[in-house]
Design brief:
single chain; 236 residues; alpha/beta; L,D-transpeptidase catalytic domain-like; 8-stranded mixed sheet; two-stranded parallel sheet; 5 helices; 17% helix; elongated
Amino acid sequence: MLVVAAYATYRFVDSTPEAPPPPTVETQPEPARTYRHASFAGEAASADARALADWVVDSRDNRNMSFAIIDKRDAKVYVFDAKGELTGASPVLLGLARGDDSAPGIGLKKLSEITPDERTTPTGRYVAEPGVNLKGEKIVWVDYDAALSMHAVRATNPKERRLERLATPTPADNRISYGCINVPTKFYREVIMPTFGKRKGVVYVLPETRPARAVFAAWYDVPPPSGPSTAALTLR
């Protein structure tokens, strides 16, 4: 007898129900970055001074302290409160020699020992504090170790014509000091002393022989106000 075996073909079907799709999550766009800006209150200033002031305010690099910016190329100081609002600006007298570094050991030398090429006003960021000099006069120490200070102008040597230099309209003749920052007496009394005479503050000295951003490494660009929404943030 011939026996024929029949083979059935089976197809297995997975009857497990499909998982429902994950719920759709609507992502909200990130809010636009808002920036803070310094106010120069209509005072003329260089692009570097404005950009540095904006960065200081936006980054809070001043650590909630009043601050000042010394623009050596324009021989001018800008003083701001902790929020970045200008409280005053004035011409200044600076070191006789061009340069952005202090001479080695300059803070230990007598004035008579300092050579003309060593009479520089060094650049950088300084935490300034009130103090007195050897004559008992009130000054603002910008860098004590380098004997760098900010003080009222002294017209002790008529040949230097310091008062006349401050009064001229250009910065061309504002280089005469041993490195210290000289300001008009009235400005020192009404702006500098109320700002730095009782507490610490930050002083930024812009360079004149190298790019400013090479000195302040953390400096970044702060976009200018683009409309009412950003302009309203200024000084808030």
